[in-house]
Amino acid sequence: MKGRNARWPGFVAATVALCLLLPGGLAAQDKPLTPVRAAYVPVATWLPAWVALDKGIFAKHGLAVTLTQIQNLSLLPGTVGRQFEFAASTPTDLIKAVAGGLDVVATAGEAIEVKSNPTTQVIVRKDSGIKSAADLKGKAIAAPTLGAVIHVATLHWLKQNGVDPASIRGVEVPFPNMGDQLKAGNVDAVEALEPFAGALLAAGNVSLGDPLLSVGDPVLFPFWMAETNWAKANRAVIKKWIVSLEQGLAMIKSDDKMAREVLAKYTGLPAPIVARIPYPAYQFSINPGQLAVWKDVLVSQGKPVKNVDVETLVVTAD
Questions:
Q1: 132 and 208 part of one domain
Q2: Where are the beta strands (DSSP E) in the chain?
Q3: What is the pLDDT of residues 243-262, one digit of tens each?
Q4: Omega cis (within 30) before 174
């Protein structure tokens, strides 16, 4: 009996350890995480996801998230369901992708454009003589991507201000190069997004306004998309994704220093610039009506999207 009693504590320890490994044991944290691959562009729009990854929020909700940086949102619709579960998108990219036969849907919001917090500006040189949208007739305008959401909005804004969109010349210029092209006189105006818009204005250039607000205020801007069948089969994952983004945003609001450190890490921008970057207006819910206004804009510009049913373009959490 003495030998058996001596071995008893070891037996108990081994039994407890085994229970922690068995289904229903105490180590719930050992449950395998769901792999989720997502693609983003390096701007502040996607900060909640970066914080959620860096601070372990995704993992806390059972998601093993891998984030991949890309430079052009317009290339992403064809990658979901293959390279990525979630990818950054915009209303015009999604609608045109569906019209072209791709099976993709919006799953979660990310940012909206509002008058009180604009992120996009059409900017001209102070000495250009251009005072309003009407003065852009016949001018050259730099766009990050012709046919993408900001340029679509700019053409809509011009038309609202009496300018024939066909009269302007669109020139594709990456955001970081817009200032040089504007200063050199190679273009008359640029479609700038923060933080580049803020830097251009700080250099003495002038904003003519936010073209996105010509579509609505507020209006849907970037969001997360997924392949349709995957989204329908993984609403629980979408819910965890949205909850993680919400908690990431809460951390941003409560700890700006931490948030800007994460922002610097993922954008690669120097600290003085990061310190001045304004955050967009974040909103993680999404609905078909937010896409419908963009469909109307595309139809007005002659894009072949009339047959797209926006009611089917959103599959989100229950």
A1: yes
A2: 34-40, 63-69, 86-89, 104-109, 111-113, 120-124, 140-143, 169-172, 189-193, 206-209, 219-220, 223-227, 281-282
A3: 999 999 999 999 999 999 99
A4: no
**Residue range(s) defining the domain that contains residue 140:** 120-214
Asked whether residue 199 falls in the same domain as residue 239, the answer is no
Which pLDDT tens digit goes with each residue over 134-169? 999 999 999 999 999 999 999 999 999 999 999 999
Q: What residues contact 196, with CB distance under 8 A and at least 6 apart?
A: 175, 176, 178, 179
Tell me, yes or no, whether 210 and 126 share the same domain: yes
Q: Report the share of the chain in percent with pLDDT over 70.
A: 91
- In this structure, the answer to whether residues 224 and 110 fall within a common structural domain is yes
Q: What is the pLDDT of residue 30?
A: 67
pLDDT at 72: 82
Evaluate if residue 28 carries a pLDDT over 60: no
CA angle 19, 22, 26 (to 5 degrees): 55
The residue among 164, 182, 214 that closes a domain is 214
Question: What's the length of the chain?
Answer: 318
Domains: count for the chain: 2
What residue has token string 């206004």? Answer: 293
> In the sheet where 111-113 sits, what is the strand order?
219-220, 111-113, 281-282
Is 152 a domain residue?
yes
pLDDT of residue 73: 83
- Helix, strand, coil percentages (3-state) for the chain, rounded to 5, are 45, 20, 35
Name residues whose C-beta falls within 8 Å of residue 287's C-beta, 6 or more positions apart in sequence: 314
Q: Is 19 part of any domain?
A: no
Give the pLDDT mean for 216-244. Answer: 98
Do 194 and 244 lie in a common domain?
A: no
9 domain residue, yes or no: no
